Amino acid sequence: MTQAVTLKPFTPRVFSGVQPTGNLHLGNYLGAIKRFVALQETHECIYCVVDMHAITVAQDPDELTRATREVTAAFIAAGIDPKKQIIFNQSQVAGHAELAWVFNCIARIGWLNRMTQFKEKAGKDRENASLGLYAYPTLMAADILLYRATAVPVGEDQKQHLELTRDIAQKFNFDFADRIRALGLESAEYFPQPEPLIAGPAPRVMSLRDGTKKMSKSDASEYSRLNLTDDADAIATKIRKAKTDPEPLPSEIDGLKGRPEAENLVTIYGALSNRTAEDILREYGGGQFSTFKQALVDLSVASLSPIGDEMRRLVADPASIDAILAEGSARARAIAEPVMREVRAILGFIQS
Length: 352
Ligand code: AMP
Ligand code: TRP
Description:
There is one protein chain. Helix content is 53%, strand content 6%. The chain is mainly α and 352 residues long. The chain folds into two domains: 13-204 and 317-347, Rossmann fold, CATH 3.40.50.620; 222-313, Tyrosyl-Transfer RNA Synthetase, CATH 1.10.240.10. The strands form two sheets. Strands 1-2-3 form a three-stranded parallel β-sheet. Strand 1 (13-18), helix 1 and strand 2 (44-49) form a beta-alpha-beta unit. The longest helix has 30 residues, at 318-347.
């Protein structure tokens, strides 16, 4: 009979990452960053600028540096307190790459072959995609599990990667169960099963040009997205030009069915104002789209401009941003290093 083990609960810990590529947009804000801010009230949080994920596709080095500072500035401008929470860039904590290698040897090729993001990003010329783009999800699993994080706020597009992370954690725990027990580690389940925190007012913000495509940094059209650094004029122009259909807004939610562009604008309005779609349709239903769009312009400018202004102020002083990242990296390393020592011991690596 196997001995009963008492599992110590994992310390609740939030981890999430954002890639420093292109400009941050409203989808990043509503799907991820706005919720990062809320979670700091209740959790210990680690927010990472994932520069190593960025290089899975070719990056201009100067642009990567700029974008890394900009994402850091966005975290702070949105309201994350870098003194209380950890904000850092991934490449500064070696454990990410090290644990990712271990997970490359745990995850199965068949698991990776199912990842839809790889298929989308690699496109038709899959043979020519980098090996890193293919292994992207094992690095993401390493990001999370290196801190034994229990909760991961992300947009809906990351759901499949979170499921893979859970599978990797489970297989590692299973494959090394005897060893983990023999080493007397605090928990027989060495890695937790991190919970995806996907629910929220806008887990999937759609393109302003096509309500069936997600708002994305890589969309060729600037009119498809509101960037956090857009000024009031740009916000107004993009919302006025946003695709809609010829019908007025419905008064009931059911009337949004089959009208993805209208639904998207109502979702955005709701997420920015903390109001329900019912409530918004009660006010604007039956009226002209132009009236609702003007209200959305005013709301978007009021919500995003202060963040954009603060981001510009912060990036004007790169030394201060770099110092915040350096301090965050040191604190992240202090959590990651003991975990890596245990992982090496579990694997049987001799270490000094
Ligand atoms: P990325 O820019 O791909 O690093 O994404 C950073 C975060 O923003 C991730 O949690 C994504 O899931 C989230 N995100 C990106 N695009 C959207 C979108 N259109 N709607 C909601 N969340 C998004
Ligand atoms: N893959 C995520 C994205 O595209 C970014 C990311 C990397 C991440 N590592 C992570 C998100 C760990 C959450 C947890 O947006």
